[in-house]
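Components:
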Amino acid sequence: DQQVKQNSPSLSVQEGRISILNCDYTNSMFDYFLWYKKYPAEGPTFLISISSIKDKNEDGRFTVFLNKSAKHLSLHIVPSQPGDSAVYFCAASAPGNTPLVFGKGTRLSVIA
Amino acid sequence: GAGVSQSPRYKVTKRGQDVALRCDPISGHVSLYWYRQALGQGPEFLTYFNYEAQQDKSGLPNDRFSAERPEGSISTLTIQRTEQRDSAMYRCASSLSMVEQFFGPGTRLTVL
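Structure:
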């Protein structure tokens, strides 16, 4: 039973446009959410996070939005660049020392 | 280097053999995590340590899997009597806190 779901396995976007990656979760105890980015042959690297007390967190071209009532978060990348092409994983954690739960990932391709 | 390192990067073994996978975390990181990642999936939690203490091993699939971190730094994940279904990418991560984990490049294990 997937507690963190990324329903789009892949996404293709033109350079300069907005990329929107979506993530849904089922566990209402999750209170911290993260996005990781993974290039081929490398480990995932932390990108951006958001606590459940916020509904938006912005870092440069990357913004994460959290809708707690819908148990949904999204990552916006604007403007998208070819170097953003990677697999993006959504992850969530509950309070206390609980492990991160990852989604299956979405492969983003930014086309020049 | 400054990042998490894992060795070997690739391991091919015959069914029934034991394997030991090594993780060298970022210096000073208290927490160390082991994940398993199948193709097309996100990392799946196996176990984690704070210093040398194993805090949670609920993700270990069966008693053939074990992990240790005897001096609170380097960790070894051992799989005894390997089976073909153990073939996967095994990832290690370390962190100063439970979130924002830094991942290593992984060890790709193939059991023939």
